[in-house]
Design brief:
With 297 residues, the chain is α/β, with parallel strands linked by helices. It has one domain: 4-Layer Sandwich (Purple Acid Phosphatase, chain A, domain 2), CATH 3.60.21.10. The termini are far apart.
Length: 297
Amino acid sequence: MLLGTAGLVAAGAAGLTYARWEAQQYTLRRATVSALPVGQAPLTILHLSDLHLVPGQVGKQSWVRSLRELQPDAVIATGDFMSHQDAVPHVLDTLEPLFDLPGAFVLGSNDYYEPRMINPTKYLAGPSQLEPRRAMLPWSDLVDGLVDGGWSHLNNTRGTLVIAGRSVDLRGVDDPHISRDRYADIAGAFDPSADLRLGVTHAPYLRVLDGMAADGADLVLAGHTHGGQLRIPGFGALVTNCDIDRARSRGLSTHRALGSRHTAALHVSAGLGTSPFAPFRIACPPEATLLTIAPRT
C-alpha cells in the first residue's frame, strides 16, 4: 500500500514537472488563409494572445521580442497581455520591437482584473465567472502605452490599417467573457472595397462570431481559450471557457452565422501564458501564430 501511494505521488510530481516545463516551450505556428483578392501578393500577420505577463518572465519576453525577426507585415493582439499590477512596463518592453509594424489590439478580462486562485474543476461546469471583489489592474496605462507604440485600440470600435499596401477594414469588441462587448454599436457590413475585412475579439463567444461573420468578415481572430490548456491526445481540449465548441478551441477553422450565406475564417490562438496560479500546460504548448493571408483561388 505504501509503495503504491508513493508511486502515485511520484507520478503526480513528474506530471506537474512536465506540465510546468511545457508551459515554457514557446512555439511558433503557421497557417494560411485565402482571403485576399485574386492576383494579390500574400501578406503576413503575427497573431499574439494571452501573454498573461508577470514580472520576471524573462524567457517569455525574450521569445516574443525575437518574433520581430520573422518580419511580419502586421501584428494583431487579442488581449490578456498581463496578470500583475506591475506588468505594464514589462508588456511594453516585450512588444517594443514590434511597434514599428502596423498593429491593432483588444483587451481581455485579465487586463482589467487581478487574477485570483480558482478551483480548476470549476471550468468543467462552464465558463468562469468574474468575482466582483477582484482588484483592478492599470489597464488604461496599458492602452496608452500600446497606442503610443502606434497600435490601434479596437475595443467596441472600427478602424482601418494599411498593411503592405493593402487596405484592411477592422472592427473589434471589448471582452465578451465579462460582457463588455457591444458589437451592436459597430455592426453593419464591412467595407466591400477593402482588400481584407478583419474582426478581432478576445473571447470567441458565438454572439460575436455570428455578428462579424454575418457582416462579411473574411477572418476573425480570437484567443482566451488557451487551447483548453490541458488537451488529451485523440480527444482534444476538455474545456473552452466560453460557448465555442471544443473542436475550435485552437487553430484555424470557419464560422457561419445561422441564416447567413457568408463563411468567415476563424483563428483562435492557444496563447502564450497561463494563470500565475496554475502555470501548467499539457499537450498544448504556448504559441504565437504567423498567418499568411493569401489570395483567393
